[in-house]
Design a protein that fits this description.
Elements lengths: L4 E5 L5 H6 L10 H6 L4 E4 L9 H9 L6 E5 L35 H14 L1 H5 L3 E7 L8 H13 L4 E5 L11 H10 L3 E6 L19 E6 L13 H5 L6 H5 L2 H10 L2 E6 L4 E2 L2 E2 H15 L6
Parallel strand pairs: 1-8, 2-3, 3-4, 4-5, 5-6, 6-7, 7-8
Antiparallel strand pairs: 9-10
Amino acid sequence: MVAPVRIGTCSWADETLIRHWYPKGLPAAARLAWYAEHFSTVEVDSTYYRVPDRAMVQRWADRTPPGFTMHVKAFGVMTRHPVKVEQLPQHLRAEMPVDARGRVDRPSAELRAVVFREFLDALEPLRETGKLGGLLFQFPPYFAPSPASYAYLEWAREQLGGDRMLVEFRQRDWFAEDERETMLRFLEDRSMAYVTVDAPRLDGANVPLTLVAATAPLAYLRLHGRNAATWNARGGGAAMRFDYLYAEDELREWVSPLRELSGEASELYVFFNNNNQTHGVAQAPAGAQILRQLLTNEGVPVA
């Protein structure tokens, strides 16, 4: 069996999509349904900043067709990122330890587990409708390989129960020759899906290498763009970091690896995270369309 490649974008509500891709005047409430007419999957990235509430997730389920798949990015506390206490649900704020800058500061495992439960409970409408893909854990550059990091990965996996865990590393040391096999074996033994990335070709601790691999039945690729000039720029945010329009030749490089992954996995997803615009073109949907055509031309199934 060969898994079809399912292609989407990171977020359906990005400002660039609203300005340059959706039909003018399309109401906000209609965007997800319109998106789902063009793609069969999406990565929900807003959940990194806030724990969603169940009513919101119910609307996502209601506005998408059967068979649509939503992968959900884990909230910052779940991936050990700095998070302002105001980003937590109101009823959890008083208990959380906070540093001088108002950020959640090294919460206990018990408090962190409460955040996990709140997050997972909110996703129930997607589970009920069969639309929940996996939970994307994008770890920060300071999350380096160590016994403590491996222990946290295992602990987080246990919190998810039957939900699937997708793991993206941003620390270069995970890809060192003497570490990568240990890392991949660890993920595979626990059915945790390794996330392959395409990023700028830079040397640096916070730039992941492109290592193509599948450690679970679900394989996952995130295309961040190759803008070396903006990857580490300060003050511009994600829109600046991922401002990149893939050339057709660059996307053609992925045809062979995706063909290989489609034979190894039972599900295969590709997401464009180059969420800015150049000369009025929404870069993520443009790249998605090019890649879809390239794969089709080479006989790689696309859904």
